[in-house]
């Protein structure tokens, strides 16, 4: 059956990475995503993609159980580590707060 | 355990809707999302949100099993119905092809 999470909080992030540091950035991001999903009950979805042919343009889709889970995530050790490690790599960051319309995914 | 789908195809869509028709658009979009996830084995994720305080700015995160599943989706009866119904509502549409970096979600 299809899954739903209408009451969760979705945030989008659009990042521009220093082209010379894209590979290092992706490793840090992957480590942070794995830790967040594994360790934080309130982090429901972290999807990271880059724009085709523009590997320095990163788009994140982040879903949290609620606002408290989002705030807890920002203070987690793995997020702090990611933030410190990637500080010099991130040239631009735009956060987009959202209202959910409908979130549906196949059960995995 | 965390779930993965590294070999799937992710597409983003950014739409601008006629402000006077946002409610009608959202109903059509919700119907199309429900049908796609329920009826199409290759449609893995359809997440629809609007930008906070800008309900006319819609963002879609679409994940397909592969390119063939994406093409099949575009020819499905429910997508055709959605497209016809919302044609006059959509003022702008930008499709963003992507490369996946890492997609992780809690099992649902």
List the helices and strands and how they pair.
The structure is a homodimer of 108-residue chains.
Chain A: E1 9-17, H1 22-39, E2 43-51, E3 54-64, H2 67-74, H3 77-86, E4 90-105
Describe the structure.
- Two copies of one chain form a homodimer.
- Chain A has 108 residues and is of the alpha+beta class.
- The first copy, chain A, has one domain: Alpha-Beta Plaits, CATH 3.30.70.
- Chain A contains three helices and four strands; from the N terminus they run E-H-E-E-H-H-E.
- Chain A has a four-stranded antiparallel β-sheet.
- In chain A, helix 1 runs antiparallel to helix 3.
- Chain A starts with 8 loop residues before the first strand and ends with a strand.
- Strand 4 of chain A pairs antiparallel with strand 2 of chain B.
